[in-house]
Amino acid sequence: MGERVSDATEAHQHTSDAASSPSNYARRWLVLSIIAITQLMIVLDATIVNIALPQAQADLQISDGARTWVVTAYALAFGALLLLGGRISDYWGRKRSFVVGMAGFAIASAIGGLAQAPWQLFLARGGQGVFAALLAPAALAILTVTFTDPKERSTAFGVFGAIAGGGAAVGLLLGGVLTEYANWRWCLLVNVPVVAVAIIAALLVVKESKAHGDTRYDLPGAILVALGLGSLVYGFTKAEDGWGQASTVSFIVAGVVLLIVFGFVESRSANPLLPLRILFHRDRGPAFFGSAVAGTVLVGATLFLTFYFQIVLEMSPVISGVASLPITGGILITAGVASALAPRIGPKPLMTVGPIISVIGLVLLTQIGVDTSYWSHVLPGLVLLGLGLGLLIIPQQNVALIGVPDHDAGAASALINASLQIGGALGAAVFTTVYASGKSSYLEDNPARSMFNAFSAEVSGYTNVFALAAIFVALVTPVVFFLVRAKKDDLPTDAAVPVG
């Protein structure tokens, strides 16, 4: 399970003698530097390939239906295994998990950077997600056991949170620079030297720590949730061939059944991967739902903006990266506003209004065309989308921890991050099918062969994606309005910290 910024975290409760030794504390700011670099790498890889994807698709001859697996494989593996990764890091050893996670991440990055076939790139991205699920909670736990002074811990996690929030923007810019001036492969290969330096530094500086007590793993739960989500995502991608196809229905039904069985197993497990009492709560449930919806937009829907910028508007990778920044900028602006307002007015007003603002932004994006201006049609939509998401994301991280017992705090913190990634994976799968359907329908109605017509078909697919994303986001407002009862005095004094 992932960790929460709190004195009551499981990691803090079970700090080993090595972790709290004077030598480790004396090097705490160097430890923070190592963890910060690692966190930046994890966050970068969620967005850095977005800008590179059009070039990678052309180079490896990836079909339109399959290309989103470059993003989906990472988000799915990361989200599905994040809770287990946190357990492993606590019980196996945080330093050991950190080093192994980094090494595995580097190997997967190298395989992806050298890929000669689509399946190799998909496999590598999935591998990155697997090792990120081990690496991210280990990094957060190391900070928790290293910084024992409340004031210094607040500073350390402020740095960590800033990187988590701003890393996406850096990824978009770096992805554009590497793709345009080097090659798309360097968006993955760049991780190798970074990891090499971080591993050497970690081996020399970081001390080992473990949690004690009951250290059993919920492997049946981990396998069931991974297979269930994987089957569900694959079923949605197969829906491109038709929702009534036997393969589509079979995978979707199998995914639902496996997830139901997962819930049954968790309810009877003595040491569950996901304590169901965390999820099924009137306040916390809407927060996890909102996080999943935010993931569908951030990971799924915005991916198609990259295609629109580079394929239709013919922007260079660098300009495409810059053109995507207003979303991140909007999130950062209202994230600060939400952090200040939530303790004064409570989380509900922010979580209710935020989705409405984002919906307006997405509706504006449905009006894009082949020859429309970025400044008049795209920019306003991106800014509103980001502003709305910022008002939603920050309060829901607090709401997700309301009333959570100390021993469940880490699992709740990890779940808010896992739901974001899983929502992104499911969103990318569903949006790919919607994109393909919109494009196909346009070509059937407009059979003329021309470049303008081909671009118009692409845009038709993109606008269908943005329209469905708007519907998803719109659902958050009534869910929050009717279910969330939390007041400002109910909020925890410290928020969940994003791990990726």
Automatic annotation (TrEMBL):
Q: How does it sit in the membrane?
A: Multi-pass membrane protein
| Bilayer-crossing regions | 29-53, 65-86, 98-117, 129-148, 155-177, 183-205, 217-237, 243-265, 286-311, 317-338, 350-368, 374-394, 415-436, 465-484
Question: What is the annotated localization of this protein?
Answer: Cell membrane
Q: What is its main location?
A: membrane
The protein's matches in InterPro entries, at most eight in alphabetical order, are given as: MFS, MFS_dom, MFS_trans_sf, Sugar_transporter_CS
Does the UniProt entry include the keyword Transport? yes
> Could you name the domain of life of the organism this protein comes from?
Bacteria
- Keyword Transmembrane helix in annotation: yes
Q: Which UniProt keywords apply?
A: Cell membrane, Membrane, Transmembrane, Transmembrane helix, Transport
| PANTHER family attached to this UniProt entry | BLR6921 PROTEIN, MAJOR FACILITATOR SUPERFAMILY MULTIDRUG TRANSPORTER MFSC
Designated name of the protein: Drug resistance transporter, EmrB/QacA subfamily
- Species lineage: Bacteria, Bacillati, Actinomycetota, Actinomycetes, Mycobacteriales
